[in-house]
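Q: Entry one of two.
A:
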Amino acid sequence: MHRTRGASYFTSRQPFGDLSIVVKRFPQRRETSDPAFVLVHGIGVSSRYFQPTAAELAQHGQVYLVDLPGYGASPDPRRDVSLSDHAAVLASFLAAARLTRPVIVGHSMGAQVVARLAVEHPDIIDHIVLMAPTLPPEARTFWRSVGRLFIDGFREPPIVNLIAVTDYFVRCGVPYALRQIPHLLGDRLEDYVHRVRAHTLVLAGDRDPIVSPEWAAEVSALIPNSRAQTVSGAHVVMFTDPVTIADEISKHAPS
C-alpha cells in the first residue's frame, strides 16, 4: 500500500493478451455509492502526474490510475502499439473490473485513447472527460508539437518537468516514445468524435500552449452530447490544480 496527499492506493500489474498495464487503485475515502473514475495519461509520461487529482477524487468514489502498455511501471510491449490497441486494453480492463458507469478521463494523448474507446467500444462507457485533447491540425508535425511542449515547460512548476523528464527518458524510454509519436500526430479527432455517444466534458487550460481552449471547444462542438469548460492553468492542470479538476470531473459523473 502507498499513500499520496492523505489517500492510500494499491498497485497491480494486469495482463491482457500480449499487453500489460499497471493500475493504481484508490479506494473511496467515504462510504458512498458514487461511480468509479479511471484516469488515463498522455504520451511519454505516466499516471504519476494524475496522483494529486486521484487523491481528491477518492473523496467522491473509487479511482483507478492506469499506466498504458509501455508507459510508467508497465512493461515494454516490444512491438508497435496503436491508439486503438491502447483503447482495446483499456476496454478489457474495464470489463474485467466490472465497474458500474465509470467516468473515463483521458489527458492529452490519453484523451485520444479515451475518444477511441468511446467510439470503438461504446457499450462499456457512457461518461468521458477529454482533457487537453491533442492536437489541433496546425500542430500535427513533430517540430511544431515539440515547440509547444517546450513552451509549456516554462509554464509548469519544476516538479512537473521533473516527472515528465524521468518518465520520458527513464521509465518510458525514447525509442518507445518515438514509435508512439506517429500515432498521436496521425490521429484526426475531428474525423471521428462525432461518433461518440457518451456524455462528454472537454477541459482545457487557459494557458495551455499545446491545446488551446478554442480547439477544445471545436472538439466539443463535434460531439453530440458534450460541453466544453476552460479552467485556469497550463497543460498539466490536473497536477497544478487538482481540487478544481477533481471538482469538474466529479460534477460530470452520472447521478
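Q: Entry two of two.
A:
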Amino acid sequence: MPNSDKSVLFIYTNSFDLSADTLIHRLGNDAVFRFNIDLWQEYAVEIDHHRLVIANPAGRTIESANIAKFLWRKPYTHQELYPDHRFPHELVFKEEEVAYAMREVWSAMYYSGRAVLIDPLSDVYAGKLLQAQIAERYFVVPEWRVVSGAQPGKRQSETEWVAKSFTSRRTGDRSMLFTTRVQTDQLSPASPWFLQSYVAAEYDVTVVVIRDALFAFALARADFPAGVIDWRRARILAPDQEWVEHALPPEVADGIRHFMQDTCLHYGRFDFLLAGNTYYFLEVNPNGEWGWLDPSGDAGIVDALARELSPDTPCHALPNPRVIQVGDCITW
C-alpha cells in the first residue's frame, strides 16, 4: 500500500483490541493507522527530531505530520497480555525499548495538541483514592480505608466491609481478587487491603462518558449467584447477566460532568451501585472498555466515538497542563 498524505487517527494498542477493531470498522481503514505494540517486529519505525515514520506489515506508511489525532488504547506488551508466561529477557528488553519510544511519541502528541480522549497517566494523577475524595462533592461515597500490617487491637468492625483491588492484577497463575465481603479481624496482616463499606445494592450502574456525552447502563443483581457481589464474577458464573440502558437522574449526570472537569478527563467509565434511589460512587476507569455494553451500536457509543475520533472532525485535545480541581477535598 502506498504512502498516504491523508490525515489519520493513530491508534496505539495491541492486536487483541476488539474496541479498536470496532472503531476501525466504523471509521474505515483509510482513516486509521494502527500500531500494535505486541507485533512491533512487523513494523518499520524511524523517529528523529524532525518526524516519526512508521510502515505497517501491509506496506502502508504514515508520517507524524499526517497524524491528526492520537488515541492511546491498550498498548499491552507480551508480559501484560500473558502474565502467566515467562518470556526471554532479550524479548522483554526489546519490547520495552520500543514501548519507551512510543510513550515519547504520545508525549509529543500530547504537547502538540493531538492526543485525544484517553490520558495514560490519569491513574497517576487521579487514582482511586483521590477520585473518592473529589467525588464526595457530587455523590454519596462509601466509607473506605487502606490497611497493611498488624493493626493494634484489631477486632471485627461493626461496619460490613468488602475487599477490592487497586490494580486488578493476578494474585496467582490463574486467580485474581474480585470484590468480596470480608471480616476485618480475619484479614491477613501480611497483605495490604483496600476496603470499602458494603452497599446492599439492587443494581450496578456504569456510565461511559465521551467528553460531553453520557451513556448509562444498569445490571440487576437479583440473579447474581449466592454470595457474589462482583458483577465480573457473576457474569463468569452466570453469563446470562445483561446490561440494559439506564436513565440517569439529572443531578447524577451533572455530577459526572463536574467530576470530569475537576479531574481533567475527556473519557471515563464510571461505576456506581444503586440502592433504592441512591447512587453510590465507586470509581472511574479513565480507559475503561465499552464494547460489551453496546455490541450492536444501537446505544450510540460507537457513533459518539467515531465523531470524536474521526480525523475529519475538530480535535478536542486533552487539557495541557492538567489542573486537577482538588480544593479542600483532601483532609490528610
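A: Comment on entry two: The radius of gyration is 21 Å. The first strand starts at residue 8 and ends at 13.
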